[in-house]
Amino acid sequence: xxxxxxxxxxxxxxxxxxxxxxxxxxxxxxxxxxxxxxxxxxxxxxxxxxxxxxxxxxxxxxxxxxxxxxxxxxxxxxxxxxxxxxxxxxxxxxxxxxxxxxxxxxxxxxxxxxxxxxxxxxxxxxxxxxxxxxxxxxxxxxxxxxxxxxxxxxxxxxxxxxxxxxxxxxxxxxxxxxxxxxxxxxxxxxxxxxxxxxxxxxxxxxxxxxxxxxxxxxxxxxxxxxxxxxxxxxxxxxxxxxxxxxxxxxxxxxxxxxxxxxxxxxxxxxxxxxxxxxxxxxxxxxxxxxxxxxxxxxxxxxxxxxxxxxxxxxxxxxxxxxxxxxxxxxxxxxxxxxxxxxxxxxxxxxxxxxxxxxxxxxxxxxxxxxxxxxxxxxxxxxxxxxxxxxxxxxxxxxxxxxxxxxxxx
Length: 409
Description:
The protein is an alpha+beta fold and 409 residues long. It is 65% helix and 13% strand. The strands form three sheets. Strands 6, 7, 8 and 9 form a four-stranded antiparallel beta sheet that branches. Strands 3-2-5 form a three-stranded antiparallel beta sheet, covered by helices on one side. The chain has a two-stranded antiparallel ribbon with strand order 1-4.
């Protein structure tokens, strides 16, 4: 309605033209609605089917253009795809394994055939990988299931043909390595033509028919018994030869021992004869040597006795001199002690003469550890209180001191 009013005001239309303007506005609105619906539908389609794809790690992608038929190899990452135009095929770069399970058993669905026409089962593992350098060239003709639609037919055609050239015994044991190399040499160029690199062909367990296995076991038992008998006969022959050689060796050994014993006796006799020639002079020399040793021993004992007597005389003289010197030293010591004692007495007498109270002090010192308390009346002349106790002892001491004083020069 706003659009109608604005159109009317700008163009200056009359009231009669309003209906025509409203119809034009409605047509414009319907066109916008259609456009928006188309955009919404396109957005929903892009949301449901985005135009991008993703190539994972260890994968390679090939984008096919359905209009031109061209191919573009793509690495790991996001790939732009136009719906309806481009088609993306992903291939793993890792090694793949193909194992013909139906041919693994002799009684399986599709066993192999040997040159004798016997059915055998073989566990095979074909290891292969895609060649990135040739992938862009062969991507258009590669099937979606490479293992089933491409590798299996090629492998079956080659392996069946290879096994028909060998016997069961050769397949089972003697020519396994040759079989593997033959299969590799024939399969490799066939797979390389389709952009596939053959890594290896590994051959595992060989399943034999039950009847053939039983006959083979019997044959092996007979062969083993025959070989055992041959080995037994050879062993017996070797034992006989060994016995002959041992007897011959024992004979030669005894002869050699007898010859050696006789030679030893002859040599011992000659050696004893030669030894006696040297022993008699040696014995004579021993007797002479013992006589000389006895005389030397006698002379040595005499010398030792004389030396001992001389040593005792020297020791006695030394002992006498030592005692004499000790007596002189003792005399000198006593003389010196007497002189020192006299000198000391002389000094004590002079000291007592000058200080008579020293006698009292000395007596008090000597009685101090025996008498604790002395009670006595003081002397009338005011002298020492110990005079009355000492009595005659003090007089004798004074007389002796006086006598020693008189004897001094």
